[in-house]
Design goal:
With 223 residues, this protein is an alpha/beta fold. It is 51% helix and 17% strand. The chain has two domains: 108 residues, Rossmann fold (3-Layer(aba) Sandwich), CATH 3.40.50; 93 residues, P-loop containing nucleotide triphosphate hydrolases (Rossmann fold), CATH 3.40.50. The strands form two sheets. Strands 2-6-1-7-8 form a five-stranded parallel β-sheet, sandwiched between helices. Strands 3-4-5 form a three-stranded antiparallel β-sheet. It starts with a strand and ends with a helix. The structure holds 2'-deoxycytidine-5'-monophosphate. 2'-deoxycytidine-5'-monophosphate binds next to α2, α4 and α8.
Length: 223
């Protein structure tokens, strides 16, 4: 039986940084499910479909083949045979991903792929519905959050370091809006699974959060 660690939480809580670090420390595969929703969103945008056109999104979802592979431990997302890693990290794609991830056909397709991956490998999987829907029997479940101002500030510093112009207030508003949308959709909304451990990283370092989760894994193995 493969081992799985599920990390859910709102945008910018540090899920992917932490999940990657834990995957490296434990020798597991890191599965970034947000990247899959982003690849789908890119496909819809490139096909000229807007967020409001849910019927078109359902139909087009059947033509979007999203797969992932790994190169030197990095997840590569393929959209219809094209490596789209360099195209999916924009705010516009993130916002479209939040919109199109409300769609049941999109979710069904990606959840199947995510379960198949976790069935054959030990995984650290992060997203919005991993503990509640994708892997309800995950060995360890974490709900990772942080104050929205702290999350916005982290994002702001990241963008500043890359030399990209940005505004802290706009970033925080985007984060709060996206959380609201992800928490209030009909299918698999973002919420803490009943058996997930809540970690608030507002005043914790990356290493402290990673150690806390590894501690949970050790506890789960002994139980
Ligand atoms: O984690 P992220 O910012 O890359 O995710 C982009 C969007 O994809 C997010 O706003 C909601 C959606 N998503 C989802 O609905 N379910 C997941 N498991 C992962 C992401």
């Amino acid at each position: 039986m493969s081992y799985s660690i599920a990390i859910d939480g709102p945008a910018g809580a540090g899920k992917s940084t932490i999940a990657k670090l834990i995957a490296k420390k434990k020798g597991y595969i890191y599965v970034d499910t947000g990247a899959m929703y982003r690849a789908m969103a890119l496909f819809f945008t490139e096909s000229g479909i807007s967020a409001a056109e849910q019927d078109k999104i359902s139909a087009a979802a059947q033509d979007a083949d999203v797969t992932i592979s790994y190169e030197n431990g990095e997840q590569i997302v393929w959209l219809n045979g094209r490596n789209v890693n360099g195209l999916i990290r924009t705010e516009a794609v993130g916002n479209m991903a939040s919109e199109s991830s409300k769609n049941k056909d999109v979710r069904q397709k990606l959840v199947e792929l995510q379960r198949a991956l976790a069935g054959k490998e030990n995984v650290v999987m992060d997203g919005r519905d991993i503990g509640t829907c994708v892997l309800p029997d995950a060995n360890v479940k974490v709900y990772l959050t942080a104050d929205s101002h702290v999350r916005a500030l982290r994002r702001y510093k990241e963008l500043q370091a890359k030399g990209q112009p940005c505004d802290l207030e706009t970033i925080e508003k985007d984060i709060v809006d996206r959380d609201y949308q992800d928490m209030h959709r009909d299918i698999s909304p973002l919420r803490q699974a009943q058996d997930a451990v809540l970690l608030d990283s507002s005043d914790m370092t990356i290493e402290e959060v990673a150690q806390a989760i590894i501690g949970l894994c050790d506890g789960a193995q002994e139980a």
